[in-house]
Amino acid sequence: MKKTYLAALDQGTTSSRAVIFTLAGEIVASAGREFRQIYPKPGWVEHDPGDILDTQVYALREAVKRAGILPEQIAAIGITNQRETTLLWDRKTGECVHNAIVWQCRRTADMAEALKEQGLGPMIREKTGLLPDAYFSGTKIKWLLDEMNLRERAKNGEICFGTVDSFLCWHLVEGHPHMTDATNAGRTMLFNLHTQDWDDDLLSMLEIPRAILPRVIDTAQVVGNLRADILGAPVPVAALAGDQHAALFGQACFERGMVKHTYGTGCFMLMNAGGEFRLSQSGLITTLAWRLKGKPTYAFEGSVFVGGAAVQWLRDELKLIGSAAESEEVALSVPDAGGVYLVPAFTGMGAPYWDMYARGTLVGMTRGTGRAHIVRAALESIAYQSRDLLAAMKADGDIECAALRVDGGASANRYLMQFQSDLTDMPVQRPKVLETTALGAALLAGLAVGAYTDLADTAKTWQPGDTFTPQMPAGEREEKLKGWKRAVRCARYWAADREEEI
Ligand code: ADP
């Protein structure tokens, strides 16, 4: 039987999906199922591990069914996953000791603060590329070991830790392999990017026994065969990658300086930073793009906290629009934002400002300001914040960047994409296949089993959809950016008792 398809399991924060691709990177079929979000306390977020498994297996079976293919025709499966979410399970029975602690969960915020207060920030940053934060798995593991009183059992090798990729492998692959890939390992705050191994200083900092950790493999590497009872055929699972890393791969950002930007509720930007580790001066994270044949490629990562969420806010709170898609038509009903700027710093501002005290601000209104101006300003705010991130990345890496490759829900907004291109003075490229995360996982798996010869071969699957080219005169761009910087200063000045110059 000819193996002419690839499958991706995309285990996300709110749903598990599966996508079947041809080797040319075209989507044949997909399926998905949402699952329950568990909020035991304000700021705490958990998932039921059983839900993760069940929805993922359902999605895969359903996608194969919809594709109308035989499992024997699938050359390989790639797994991509919500990052940092933490599970511990019993090595003998596979039973999880607790619900999964989701990346968003803030239960260990104090622990992360304490690490900063002890002055451990620079050491963590130099080894892992990360800033100490409760997002990353390390403090979540410590919390579980402490709260569940598991340290002795952990030392004795009775407990396994895994991020979602490891957890899925352990349960879905023959022989219960306990493995993770380097991109996922890199999000634990325990993995040393220089040695490409778990780090003893970081492990002892959080009192985590090495015995619980999975073996770290390349991003494109065969883990083993899918359990035969799942699809009825032993298809190889051949890639593991964190979701943002898979998207960077799916966008074929293989050269240093290539950038992908995902416009979702929040927006995630990753830039290929090449083979050398380098720290950012603007508070961006240095992370692995992927590791292939033992060789790491690095990336800078930054996020816009409120991206598409600003559009949801217009719809749900201000009721200025009926749907997210309507924002485009309303914005285009006026020639410009009329001097209005929205800084949606609802939860503070991230890179390059890092100001947790900043708050949402709407400035520049006159008696003539109407709904359309505010809607337009909200869309523009997504582009301004994204442009700031990009400028920081370019400066930090001393990297030239030729184009922005985009995906995610809000990338459907043509006005936003055009304005983004105008602001960055760069082409914005939206690929034909917007499922870049799933595509990346599938391509990595294909690479591991020899369906592609090299990166250039996988890059052939990237097909341009729409390209937006800069139209705005330089003077107008400069004026707009100046206005945005002033608006950001207003948002930051708002915080009480802060008289200092910003
Ligand atoms: P996530 O994966 O974070 O749930 P998605 O990639 O599904 O996000 O994108 C959803 C976000 O995109 C929402 O915040 C929504 O407001 C925004 N969005 C969707 N379509 C549009 C559009 N046409 N214009 C502007 N924003 C949009």
Low-confidence stretches: none
> What structural category characterises the helix and strand content?
alpha+beta
Terminal CA distance reads 65 Å
Give the strand line-up of the largest sheet: 17-18-16-15-21-22-23
Number of helices: 17
Summed over residues and divided by their number, the pLDDT gives a mean of 94
Rounded to the nearest angstrom, the radius of gyration is 23 Å
Strand content: 15-25%
Name the bound molecules: adenosine-5'-diphosphate
Overall shape: globular
**Total number of β-strand segments?**
23
The largest sheet is:
7 strands, mixed
**Helix proportion of residues, in percent?**
25-40%
Summarize this entry quickly:
With 502 residues, this protein is α+β, with helices and mostly antiparallel strands. Helix content is 35%, strand content 23%.
Description:
There is one protein chain. Helix content is 35%, strand content 23%. It is built from 17 helices and 23 strands. A seven-stranded mixed sheet has the order 17-18-16-15-21-22-23. A six-stranded mixed sheet has the order 3-2-1-5-14-13, with helices on both faces. The longest helix has 27 residues, at 371-397. The model has no long low-confidence stretch (mean pLDDT 94). Bound molecules: adenosine-5'-diphosphate (ADP).
